[in-house]
Task: structure prediction
Amino acid sequence: MKVVLLAAVLGSLLSAGSDVTITVQVGDPAPSFAGKWLNHPPATLQDLAGRIVFIEVWRTW
Amino acid sequence: MIVGVTNEPESMVTKDVAKKKMKYPVAIVEGEDFDRQYGIRGFPTSFLVGPDGEILWTGHPGSFEPEMLEEHLQKLWLPPTLPDKHAALNELLAERNLAKAWKALEKARAASPDDADLTAVAEKISARVTARLEEGRTAEQAGDFAAARRAYVEVTEVFGGVPGAEAAKTALADLAKNKLAKAELDAADKLDEALAQWRGGDLEKGLRGIRAVLKKHEGTAAGKVAAEFIDRHPEGD
Result:
């Protein structure tokens, strides 16, 4: 049990060290993203500079 | 523009988009990077992104008030459009290729000097050049050299060839000679570089760069922006 717990803690420490997580807030630059597009030619968010973009994040379910 | 974002399998998304007759652009992103960077905790979630890429608002799409757009819309300059018979010119205008559009516009005006639409569009473009140059000068006087440079660069790059636009080149050369402006712009460049890395997904490197700006360029406008950023994300979160 202890070993498992230790492994879990170590694992989370290791991943925390190599993986900075930042959650964007108002005032931050919006991280760019690329993807496969429907109803639009290929683009990154940075390609859309000059426009106001309303991003809606959804799932089909 | 409105953009939908999901990371579900393409076949599933395509089916849903067809079923709900969605006509707006949908980006299918891969993996968890998007959700991680944007800190997505539930669905749907939305973000309003300004023309310069800044997050202006975030929340549930249902709680978005269109009035929030107004002040930001006023800052945007949308190229004017002409009646359909000038389709080729409209295309250049829509691409914001003003240098080319201006040449074509001059040609069209020479061929039909009485076309009031053409004259009106030429006046709107000239007015934008004058206004942007003025914004640059005002920013310069206020010590916001990065904003001044942005204005001058836009005039040079987007409106090159439009009468009056050459003043921006002179203004840029003057900025380069100004010691105070140079220190501010160096800091702004370093910050832009770090933010670009951060935006591009290299959070660690980006964050290091932002911290470096805070340390090495204290007292500059960019240093202040860097400090605000670190304040918002004290633990790198």
